[in-house]
């Protein structure tokens, strides 16, 4: 009966809470529409369209997007550059709130560039704040902080205090996510102080600040204060018809009730949050509310409801953070980094030109003085002698300055290249880390779904229904297995991106080869017992010690031995009974090098495959048996870490031989 009562009260509560705000919004929008009907197709109409679009932003995002696009197109037609930049920024904000993060990022970057070209500070601040919001959605809180700080500085210069409050509360929320709660509390308090001086009606930043302060108080354990801030946020959204912030506040209240073990209240507010967020297609809150509803129904053993909300959460997760969108964001972020780098390079070149001009002016002045001194004192040998010495010193200084300038340019070019590649590596590692979360999410929910199917308490179905259930269980297990495989690929990617090398030391290669060969045999002991492999070792007794990192070099050898054993095992599966698997390991000393050869009579490789074996993610093994990073890492360790070479000779169906050469 309690659940029925909650369902009956929900529509009535929504109707009562939305009615006053809807009327208030109608007055404002009707006034703007009336003014718009009399406006000419010029810059004033562009600004009216943007104001009207802003009134719909938190309640009808589709209308906001449509009006902003109209404003952008009209601004292009009438060459109103400032209006075009602001319209582009509003398009980016609307797309971000709909979950289209790559498109939102691209529009905000374009808006920022346009606003910067026409020196529209307010447009620049708006786009920087929008870029910070996108970074926040992607959980890249430190990058978001950087954008928010830039936006706050501009809004402060323009004395737009409601927007200053919005950036302050967003910065505080970043620090709260980073678990720096003291800084978060200071910033949220500053935002509250600014908002207290803001007359009504206020911007959406007021509800945002109240909601963020509630979240911070909940983190600090002040639950009554947190509820108070959430309720104030809901009241603020009722005054402005801000459905987006209302949905987020309802979701936070549901989460807090869940923390306090009040499932009925948590269920009520989670449903309210999902319903409100769905009205404005705010996918982030839909995802959070769906996850919470999945947990609540799972505890109540409502299998159908839990599965429904879980499916909704999975859909929202893919639409927000799918691999394709991450790739698009990666390319956009890299392009933006290159653009910023080019701007810095241009500024540095300009500075260098100014320095050179100043240097030439100084040199010209000194030379002029020297000539005047020479003309005035040409009758005195001593003066001439001093003047010659002075000229020689000036020439030496000029040569030294030219050399220093040449070295500075070379260092700048090297730093620019280093920074670009460091950014690419950091971005790739960050994205690899971010991908761990959705993969774990997919695997865990697959395991939970299998558990729900296996322990729902009902008898096993028979016939076609039983086959369908068995197929469903099999599909879920395969989803979990492939998620685990993707996680292992990402772990190898992070290992591939790891910087630095181990300490080099004098190493006995024969001992290192023997130890790792034994490890490879032990690691494949089950297969070698069923398919005995003939091992032939020929280790040169006079092999000198080499300077190497034993752990990294051992990793290379272990990979080569394991691959050789695998190749012979694969060939034996399809060969006649008289086939004898064989692996040969040889070491020898050359003029200024030592050589290690690993040869097997396994499956071999075609020439087209052999040309790609050292490329990352390329593998000849079946799906699930390899990530394609082993030989790529081995090649980097030998060539970059030890200054040696790693080559391969092979013939399809006959043999493969890897040769490692290291400087002795």
Chain-wise SSE layout:
Elements: H1 2-37, H2 43-56, H3 61-77, H4 81-97, H5 101-117, H6 121-137, H7 141-158, H8 161-177, H9 181-196, H10 205-219, H11 223-240, H12 243-259, H13 263-279, H14 283-299, H15 303-321, H16 323-376, H17 381-454, H18 463-497, E1 505-507, H19 509-523, H20 525-530, E2 534-539, E3 546-548, H21 550-573, E4 582-589, E5 593-600, H22 607-610, H23 630-642, E6 645-651, E7 655-663
Parallel strand pairs: 2-4
Antiparallel strand pairs: 1-3, 4-5, 5-7, 6-7
TPR repeats: 207-240
Keywords: Coiled coil, Membrane, Phosphoprotein, Signal, TPR repeat, Transmembrane, Transmembrane helix
Pfam family, one: TPR_12
Features:
single chain; about 675 residues; alpha+beta; Serine Threonine Protein Phosphatase 5, Tetratricopeptide repeat; Heat Shock Protein 90; five-stranded mixed β-sheet; two-stranded antiparallel sheet; 7 strands; about 75% helix
Report on the architecture of this protein:
The chain is built from 23 helices and 7 strands. The strands form 2 sheets. Strands 2-4-5-7-6 form a 5-stranded mixed sheet, with helices on one face. Strands 1-3 form a two-stranded antiparallel sheet. It has 664 residues and is of the alpha+beta class. Among the domains are: 20-259, Tetratricopeptide repeat domain (Serine Threonine Protein Phosphatase 5, Tetratricopeptide repeat), CATH 1.25.40; 505-663, Heat Shock Protein 90. Helices cover 75% and strands 7% of the residues. The radius of gyration is 34 Å and the shape is flat.
């Amino acid at each position: 009966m309690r659940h029925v009562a909650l369902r009956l009260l929900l529509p009535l509560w929504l109707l009562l809470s939305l009615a006053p705000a809807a009327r208030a919004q109608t007055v404002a929008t009707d006034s703007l529409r009336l003014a718009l009907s009399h406006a000419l197709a010029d810059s004033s109409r562009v600004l009216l369209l943007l104001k009207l679009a802003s009134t719909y932003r938190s309640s009808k995002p589709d209308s906001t997007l449509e009006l902003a696009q109209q404003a952008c197109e009209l601004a292009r037609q009438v060459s109103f550059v400032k209006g075009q930049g602001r319209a582009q920024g509003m398009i980016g904000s609307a797309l971000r709130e709909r979950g289209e993060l790559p498109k939102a990022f691209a529009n905000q970057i374009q808006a920022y560039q346009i606003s910067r070209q026409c020196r529209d500070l307010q447009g620049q601040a708006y786009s920087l704040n929008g870029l910070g919001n996108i970074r926040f959605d992607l959980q890249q809180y430190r990058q978001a902080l950087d954008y928010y700080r830039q936006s706050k500085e501009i809004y402060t210069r323009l004395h737009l205090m409601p927007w200053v409050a919005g950036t302050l509360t967003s910065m505080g929320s970043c620090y709260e996510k980073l678990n720096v709660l003291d800084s978060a509390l200071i910033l949220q308090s500053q935002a509250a102080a600014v908002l207290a001086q803001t007359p009504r009606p206020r911007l959406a930043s007021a509800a945002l600040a109240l909601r963020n302060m509630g979240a911070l108080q909940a983190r600090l354990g002040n639950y009554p204060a947190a509820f108070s801030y959430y309720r104030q946020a809901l009241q603020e959204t009722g005054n402005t018809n801000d459905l987006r912030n209302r949905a987020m506040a309802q979701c936070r209240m549901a989460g807090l009730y869940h923390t306090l073990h009040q499932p009925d209240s948590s269920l009520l507010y989670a449903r309210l949050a999902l319903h409100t967020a769905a009205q404005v297609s705010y996918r982030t809150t839909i995802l959070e509310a769906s996850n919470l509803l999945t947990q609540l129904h799972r505890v109540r053993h409502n299998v159908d409801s839990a599965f429904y909300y879980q499916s909704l959460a999975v859909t929202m997760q893919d639409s927000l953070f799918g691999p394709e969108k991450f790739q698009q964001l990666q390319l956009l972020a890299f392009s933006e980094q290159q653009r910023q780098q080019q701007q810095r390079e241009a500024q540095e070149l300009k500075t260098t030109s100014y320095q050179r001009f100043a240097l030439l002016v100084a040199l010209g002045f000194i030379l002029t003085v020297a000539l005047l001194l020479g003309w005035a004192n040409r009758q005195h040998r001593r003066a001439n002698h001093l003047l010659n010495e002075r000229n020689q010193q000036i020439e030496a200084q000029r040569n030294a300055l030219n050399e220093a300038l040449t070295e500075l340019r070379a260092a700048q070019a090297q730093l620019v290249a280093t920074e670009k590649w460091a950014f690419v590596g950091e971005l790739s590692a960050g994205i690899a880390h971010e991908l761990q979360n959705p993969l774990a999410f997919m695997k865990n929910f697959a395991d939970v779904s299998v558990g729900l199917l296996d322990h729902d308490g009902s008898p096993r179905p028979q016939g076609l229904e039983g086959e369908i259930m068995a197929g469903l269980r099999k599909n879920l297990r395969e989803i979990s297995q492939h998620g685990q495989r993707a996680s292992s690929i990402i772990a190898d990617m992070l290992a591939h991106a790891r910087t630095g090398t181990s300490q080099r030391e004098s190493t006995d290669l024969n001992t290192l080869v023997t130890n790792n060969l034994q490890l490879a045999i032990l690691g494949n002991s089950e297969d070698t017992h069923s398919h005995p492999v003939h091992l032939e070792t020929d280790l040169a007794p006079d092999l000198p010690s080499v300077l190497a990192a034993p752990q990294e070099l051992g990793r290379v050898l272990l990979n080569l031995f394991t691959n050789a054993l695998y190749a012979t095992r694969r060939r034996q599966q399809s060969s006649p009974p008289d086939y004898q698997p064989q692996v040969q390991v040889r070491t020898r000393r050359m003029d200024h090098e030592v050589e290690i050869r690993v040869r097997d009579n396994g499956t071999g490789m075609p020439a087209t495959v052999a040309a790609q074996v050292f490329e990352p993610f390329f593998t000849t093994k079946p799906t699930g048996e390899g990530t394609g990073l082993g030989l790529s890492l081995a090649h980097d360790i030998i060539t970059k870490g030890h200054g040696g070479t790693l080559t391969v000779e092979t013939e399809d169906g006959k043999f493969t031989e890897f040769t490692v050469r290291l400087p002795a």
